[in-house]
Amino acid sequence: MSTQREAITLDADCVDGIRDALLLGLSCLGEIEELCNAHEIAEKFGGEWPEGAIPKHPTGTADCVGRFANALRLLNIASH
């Protein structure tokens, strides 16, 4: 099995759609991070949140922002 990948060509509308989706995902990740931080601060000061309101990080990893940034960077490189 070859590990080499084939190149694909995307038209401008497709690139714009991918960029919009990445930006939306990055924005949503920021909202989740804010909720996680608020929950963490509340816990430190004795605040309690209902079980269903406790935010859960969608990936559980700390490299999400970097992965979004890399995807956007590669998309920009590929579209020029």
- What is the CA-based Rg, rounded? 18 Å
Structure annotation, total helices: 2
DSSP summary, beta strand count: 0
Order of helices and strands: HH
- Give the overall pLDDT as a whole number: 87
Main beta sheet strand tally, sense and closure: none
Shape descriptor: elongated
Share of helical residues: 55-70%
User: Based on helices, strands and strand pairing, what is the structural class?
Assistant: mainly alpha
Total count of domains: 1
* Low-pLDDT ranges: none
- What share of the residues does DSSP label as strand, in percent? under 5%
Q: What separation lies between the terminal Cα atoms? A: 31 Å
Q: Assembly type of the shown chains? A: single chain
How would you characterize the overall build of this protein?
The protein is mainly α and 80 residues long. It has one domain. Helix content is 60%, strand content 0%. α1 (12-44) packs antiparallel against α2. The longest helix is centred in the middle third of the chain and has 33 residues, at 12-44. It is elongated. It starts with 11 loop residues before the first helix and ends with a helix.
Question: In short, what is this structure?
Answer:
The protein has helices at 12-44, 64-78. 60% of the residues lie in helices and 0% in strands.
Offer a few descriptive terms.
about 80 residues; mainly alpha
What is the fold's blueprint, element by element?
Layout: H1 12-44, H2 64-78
